[in-house]
Amino acid sequence: MSKRTVARTFDWPGTVLSAAPILVCLVFVWIIGSVLAHGLDQISWSFLTEAPTRSGRAGGIGPILVATALILAVCITVALPIAVATAILLAEFVSSKHRGARAVRLSLDVLAGVPSIVFGIFGNAFFCSFLKLGFSILSGGLTLACMVLPVLIRTSEESFRSVPLSYRLGAFALGFSKTRTIFKLLLPLALPGVLVGTLLGIGRALAETAALIFTSGYVDRMPSSLLDSGRALSIHIFDLSMNITGADAAAYRSAVVLLALLLVINGIVICASNLWKRLAGLTAAV
Amino acid sequence: MRQQLMEAPGRPHCGRLTAFNGREILAANGRAEAVAESLWRISDLSVRYGAKAALSSVSIDLPRKAVTSIIGPSGCGKSTFLYCLNRLSASIDGCRVNGRILMASTDLTAPGVDDVALRKRVGFVFQKPNPFPLSIRRNLELPLKEHGMRDRASIDDAIESGLRAVGLWAEVKDRLNSSAQQLSGGQQQRLCIARALVLQPDALLMDEPCSALDPMATAVIEELIHSFCEKNLTIVIVTHNLRQAKRLGNYAAFFWCRAGAGYLVEAGPAQRVFDAPHNELTKLYVAGGVS
Question: Which of A240, B3, B4, B212 fits A247 for a cystine, CB–CB 3.0-4.6 Å?
């Protein structure tokens, strides 16, 4: 068959296959477009800093942003070290066929699929009641930490495993002990991957509503400490659109802020990852 | 005889070539000839990976300040043997070493050997160049800092002399901060050799260092090995290239395998092993390979 005939034949599979990504993009543009169209016009600096009034119909989202940031900070501060430590253990110290490691991996996969409302109930029972932390930012952050741990551990483990064995042997042969190899070579190489996992975790945590309703509560005043209750942004949006009549505009505005927040955090993490690669002298993507 | 070796598909494969002319050739485990001054004295070394035996009962002395080349078919435990010499075998999952390896007066098989100090003395060059995905400078700086060099000026000096020793300085001095992985295969391998040399080892173990390189790069590496030998470095090189073994080695050791486990057939001065082998198996292998 000559090239010309190939070019003229209508390419059915190609057309169908290229329709799918176009459809996905359209849906994405539609969602973003509708949120922006409804919410972008009235966003101002005072909206970001002021406290909500009349149950959120008026005023801003200042305390809610602070509470969201605190919940996220607790979540990542607790989850990241545990995740990296577990990932190092699973990837570097335990053989992949080890029965215990397989059990851990299986339970992580199950946990990753558990609905967030279940995490919410668990968080309420364990952190709020059993540990007597009450409805607080601390309870909410810890519950979210439990929720994002599985995805954080698995992505971190994968990024450690993706460092080729030849680098490890190379380091051992140069007189690096196992611990030194992990901290001087593997961790710097795996860190960009860990950051991607963190990004996924932050995304999941930021979008979380169900797990937080039972743990951090939904008081919309400025939190005074980590043991104070606080309303996360996604709960605020949920509350405005479902429970408060006449607050749709404020809900859309908050949704725009949530989207922007996601984009900003994405940008920050990607910049941090690139900066790290430059600082550590990493020259190739691992 | 040569004809029969050539008929074997590709490289002689373990187990297939135990029978020449319809009869079994089962050489007894060879005891290597004594050498004047040895760096390693190995007796009755056996290595297993899990349930699978990789080396059985190897006894050999490796001469100090000389090049020993180790030849033999794939899968006869040559690399495994090399891993035992700097205890890299201890870092491999499921690898069990039995027997006795004396390096100078240290027993490498005794418990509590200082791996870090040993590997600083004994460099290793892998088959496939494995520079870290860092800049050229960082590749050399990392081992230096790991072994306690902190002073900027002495690090730079060590990097320069390491790169000069492998003839890479002129080629890379203007781009020390660019990626080591942008170098050609031959340059990468020389960088890996430099990385081992900056620690000023007494010995260098090389596991088929040229098998991933083109003939020109191979010639450069062989030239380097000659120059190291003049600097009194002890070199043990595993190679599939019999010509290379003949060109480089002062000593040669020939491994073969029996029932999946490698063993030493004979070892001695390279000239003698290649031109007047004692063992019939060596005679066949050397004749077939060099033709």
Answer: A240
